[in-house]
Inverse folding.
């Protein structure tokens, strides 16, 4: 800004800067025309804050550590400069994106493909739980971008002839803190040390680490009534899409069975399911064929399912940071959403830690306790069936060791589902 145009007051200067940010386009950031068109086609009218901060630096070739709230477009912030650079100097095995979970790897690949469809970008997803042979073939074709979880990538680096990352120009670690906490720490840190040079930190965060449009509540209840309160809430908020987080695979499976027995369209996603079932569950939920996704923390990071209205922390997260990621599955990209955290007599300290981390005191989610108690009988019957199903399922699995992933969905349990009298409670008028 030239000296004679200097604004009269610092406030004015800030306003001008803010206004400039408001009106910035992808083109202003240095993104090439065909990619600007791709953004347009995805309905990205203007870049988000982290994209405004990170894209120009990335285009200059700087190394970046990017921090921004959930659902704020971090994927685009790294995908656009990579595609831009790829267009300038086309090359095979150009970029590697590491992610902590398989589902996230597929999602990131879809984002690259959506942005890069008109330029013919080729991606390969290299994750566990899937046939290794077909992945070796995909790698032999030398894609432009590899999106991988660390374990399977290391497998291929060690065992797939002719595959290496020597030509690599870009390395991204999405959810880097999580990746660096995984068991592959040494391998991944080696990669990172080799890669990061004088990184710039792009931190875009407001006062709160959770997003503004997220309404957060807690519910203080005795542990033994958790299931009943869950059913009550699902009835109260009927018509919404829910992600419900549980602490273990077993409880995720059990709760899914319980809800199905009560007639809810619930589906599980956890690490003891085969990869095809995991993706099947996720896709049914994404396609709105199921309204409730029950998941462990395998689904707490990065997943972008815009229609999620409510996140329920059925089991409180033990790591406060997971709270922020879990509740960030709703209220994404400027939408609104709700989060409800169950706090039992055992969870008070963990809950206080969460409130401390987000710097907020949460309000109580209002409930009519007499109405909740009216549900207890039907819920306990459904619990009984769920336990039976879980046991049968466990025995079946023992018998079928050779195909452990075959039956880990709850869909097979439909037979029992309608045995619980009445099924799903009727929605009350006016709600
Ligand atoms: N410039 C933009 N304008 C509008 N929508 C955008 C823009 N950039 C990205 N989005 C959309 O915002 C949503 C969230 O983006 P993304 O998944 O990249 O968020 P994130 O910051 O990585 O979140 P998380 O921390 O949960 O991983 C996606 O549906 C994406 O398509
Ligand atoms: Mg992300």
């Amino acid at each position: 800004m030239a000296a004679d145009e200097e604004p009269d007051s610092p406030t004015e200067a800030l306003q001008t800067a803010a206004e400039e940010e408001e009106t910035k386009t992808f083109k202003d950031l240095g993104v090439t025309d065909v990619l600007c068109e791709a953004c347009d086609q995805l309905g990205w009218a203007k870049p988000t804050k982290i994209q405004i901060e990170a894209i120009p630096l990335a285009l200059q070739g700087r190394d970046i550590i990017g921090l921004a709230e959930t659902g704020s477009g971090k994927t685009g912030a790294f995908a656009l400069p990579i595609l831009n650079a790829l267009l300038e100097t086309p090359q095979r095995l150009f970029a590697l994106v590491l992610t902590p979970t398989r589902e996230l790897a597929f999602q990131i690949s879809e984002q690259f493909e959506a942005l890069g469809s008109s330029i013919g970008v080729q991606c390969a997803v290299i994750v566990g739980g899937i046939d290794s042979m077909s992945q070796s073939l995909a790698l032999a074709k030398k894609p432009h971008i590899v999106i991988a979880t660390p374990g399977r990538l290391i497998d291929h680096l060690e065992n797939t002839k002719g595959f290496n990352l020597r030509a690599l120009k870009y390395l991204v670690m999405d959810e880097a803190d999580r990746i660096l906490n995984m068991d592959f720490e040494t391998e991944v840190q080696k990669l990172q040390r080799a890669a990061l040079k004088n990184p710039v930190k792009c931190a875009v965060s407001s006062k709160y680490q959770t997003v503004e449009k997220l309404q957060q509540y807690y519910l203080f209840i005795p542990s033994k009534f958790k299931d009943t309160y869950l059913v009550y809430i699902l009835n109260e908020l009927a018509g919404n899409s829910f992600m419900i987080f549980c602490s273990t695979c077993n409880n995720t499976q059990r709760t899914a069975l319980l809800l199905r027995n009560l007639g809810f369209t619930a589906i599980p996603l956890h690490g003891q399911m085969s990869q095809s079932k995991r993706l099947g569950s996720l896709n049914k939920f994404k396609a709105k064929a199921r309204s409730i996704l029950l998941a462990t923390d395998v689904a707490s990071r990065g997943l972008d399912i815009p229609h999620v209205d409510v996140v329920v922390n059925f089991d409180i997260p033990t790591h406060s940071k997971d709270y922020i990621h879990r509740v960030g599955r709703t209220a994404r990209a400027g939408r609104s959403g709700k989060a409800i955290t169950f706090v039992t007599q055992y969870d008070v300290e963990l809950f206080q830690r969460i409130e401390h981390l987000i710097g907020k005191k949460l309000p109580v989610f209002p409930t009519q306790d007499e109405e909740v108690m009216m549900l207890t009988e039907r819920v306990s019957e459904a619990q009984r069936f769920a336990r039976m199903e879980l046991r049968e399922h466990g025995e079946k699995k023992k018998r079928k060791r050779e195909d452990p992933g075959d039956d880990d969905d709850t869909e097979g349990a439909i037979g029992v589902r309608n045995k619980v009298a009445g099924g799903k409670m009727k929605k009350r008028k006016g709600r």
